[in-house]
Amino acid sequence: xxxxxxxxxxxxxxxxxxxxxxxxxxxxxxxxxxxxxxxxxxxxxxxxxxxxxxxxxxxx
Length: 60
Prior knowledge:
Largest sheet: 3 strands, antiparallel
Radius of gyration: 11 Å
Order of helices and strands: EHEHE
Helix content: 25-40%
Strand order of the largest sheet: 2-1-3
CATH architecture: 2-Layer Sandwich
Structural class: alpha+beta
Distance between the termini: 20 Å
Shape: globular
Number of strands: 3
CATH class: Alpha Beta
């Protein structure tokens, strides 16, 4: 069976955010604005997205 995936898009700049937020964005593999990455739908990745909801969006 195929593993569930989520698509995450960087919609806000992490420039003037705390260092922890920058680390989370980089750990998700996001480097550029409007970049979309696909990650496994696990509690770990969901938690990372919930930490910085003002910078990220889930894409369908």
